[in-house]
Amino acid sequence: MKMETPTPAKTSIQVIERMMALLDALASYTDPVSLKELSRVSGLHPSTAHRILNDMVVTRFVDRVEPGTYRLGMRLLELGNVVKSRLSVREAALDAMRALHRKTQQTVNLSVRQGDEIVYIDRAFSERSGMQVVRAIGGRGPLHLTSTGKLFLSVDDVKAIRAYATRTGLAGHTRNSITELARLERELSLVRARGYARDNEELELGVRCMAAGIHDDSGKLVAGLSISAPADRLQEDWLEDLVQTASRISSTLGYRPIAPV
Q1: CATH of domain 86-253
Q2: What b/e string do you get for 98-111 counting C-beta neighbours within 10 Å, with b at 16 or more?
């Protein structure tokens, strides 16, 4: 029986698969790894692994620390920085926001901080689902009266929070607005403890919101994801979906939470 000769396309794909197996193996170790260990983890014959690793050393995808030991190379960091520079919060969040809207049938907002206000930079909503609470893209709201704004205030230190209170006077919009520093500080303590924030008709009567934070690869809070709904429609079981969605967006941006010791 005649043996089938591998085509160039099959050979190329096989090489790529083997390269990825070695890169995945290297990524699972914090210290330089021996050829023997990489061969074992990747399932490749030592001579095959050695040949591919040599090629990746030349292209700087892998560094040879000393004869027979390897680690991930700086080229990967360079490419990762290129990807990071091109990835915006809006791009990372859009599909997840739409999915959350489909599940809740309420408006989902993406907001960032600018000075003493939040700015709504994107939203997911539909006209078909009846009455909607829609924040216009580009619209603004005070930090202390909005759920996302409270997230940003909660990561400030005491001095910065008090300076904000002095600058703004903690002006209120409704009878539910937080206008006293002591009450605001208590509210922010709850936000830190819970990991999410609420707006209980504080910006607008009849509207309630809940928000969870989005973090980048450095751990910095870069945006807030919130659900806005008529006060009598906001459901507590949406909170878990909201937090999980914000977490997935953060992961897309490269955020890895620090595991508790």
Answers
A1: 3.30.450.40
A2: eebbeebebbbbbb
